[in-house]
Structures are given as C-alpha cells and as structure tokens.
Amino acid sequence: MIGKFATASALPLLILTILLGAKGFGQAAPPAQPAAAPTPAAQQPSPQQPPAQQPAAQPPATEQEPSEEPLPRRKAKPKDYKNWTFDIGAGANLDSGTTETYVRGGGGVGTVGVARNANKYLGLRADFIFANLPLRDSTLQLAQATGDNNNLYAVTLDPIINIPASKLYHGYFLLGGGFYHRTGSLSGDTFPPGSGCNGFWTWWGSCTGGVSLPVSGNFVDSNQNSFGYNFGAGITRTLPSGVELYLEARLMHGKNSNVTTDVRPITIGVRW
Prior knowledge:
Helix content: 25-40%
CATH topology of the domain at 84-271: Porin
Number of strands: 8
Distance between the termini: 141 Å
Oligomer: single chain
Strand order of the largest sheet: 1-2-3-4-5-6-7-8
Structural class: alpha+beta
Low-confidence stretches: 1-7, 24-47
Number of helices: 8
Radius of gyration: 52 Å
C-alpha cells in the first residue's frame, strides 16, 4: 500500500515539475528574440538613406548641363574666308576692238577694289579702274594733232567665284556690268572746223550728226559715257602674312550709240 501510494504521489509531482520547467523555458526564450530580429530591421533604413540624398547631389549635374551646351560652338571650325577683302593693283592695257585701231597698247592701269564674300566660293566685288589710252602716231596724223591726253575711268560691279585650289594658290572668275567714262583732249590740232568726219572723229565722239565736225572747234575735246560689261579671271598666291599676291586679266566693253570703248587691263597687285 505504501508503495502504491508513493507511486501515486510521485506521478503528479513529476507532471508538475515538467509543466513548471516548460513554463520557465518559455519565459527565458523571448528575451533572446529582441536581440536578433529587431536590430537588423531597425538598421535597414540607414543604408537606404544615400538613395534618398541623391536628389541633393543631382543639382551639380543640372548645373553642368548648361556649360556643355556651348561646347559645339567652341569646337566649331573657324571661318576659312574673310567677310571683306580689299585689293589694289597696277599694270598695263591691251586694247581691242575699234579702240585698238586708234589707241596703242601699253598704257598704264591702276585698280582699287573691295569684295563682300558670302562664303569661301561666292562674293560680290566692286572696282574702280583707271586706264591710260595713248593715241597711236598714225591717229595723231589723222587728227592733225601733235599730242594727246586720253584716259578711261570705269566702275564695275561683278559677282566673283573663288576657286581654292590649295592652301597657297587660288583662282577666281568674275563677270558683271560697268560704267565707263572716256575723256581726252588733243594738243596742236590743225584739223579744219566743219570738215567731214572720218572714223577717228566718230570714235572720238566729235561728229555732229555723224557727218561733220562742229565749226566752233570744240571737237578737240572728248567726253564719252557708256555702259557695258566686263569679265575676267585671276590667280592668287598666299604669303605667310596672309596677304595674297594676284595676277588678273579682264576684258571691258562699253558702248553708246555706235561709239565703243574696249580695253583689256592686265594687273598685278595685292589682296587682303
């Protein structure tokens, strides 16, 4: 009996001991959980803060964008032509047409010009040209004069086409219109006033109605105005200073009624 009672008393005691042990284990486990789980979860936002700060770092990038826009302008190639070019030259004249009949070649020529260039190939050029037109000895005999002073003053306006063959050598062509003023005077003339005209007096512009010379004797002076055309070509050689030497030849023709003026100036000069 005592043995059965001891066994029956020990069984509830054993169950109670097991329940108390399980409860103590359950109360001891939770304190370990806050140390493991909450710490990583609470620290995760701190590594993610740099992405939240990226907008503050973006303004330098936006500030750099305007500075990058002018870069193409800085890298743009410099102009390979000048907006304005100027030229001055001198040379001699070779006559042609009716003018060659009465004027000998070799008269002095002087030119001054300016060009406005649209690009390296096309431009518009204006020139003032002076040409001395000395009469032939046979012409002076025909006019019964001992001397003369005969000159041409011309203003031309021409589109110009430039041909850059290389860095040193260029070529160009020009073609356009012009205004020509030819003026002259004879000295020691003994031709009778009122006489019939010949070819020279017609070209000189002194015939009255194309038939005879005026009786007043003013036929010794000549003033002829005419409009016409001109065309020419030239080559240039660029010097180390940037100034260009040029050689140019032109043909100029003017006409008023039946009176013509034809000259072929050849000039050498500089262009800058």
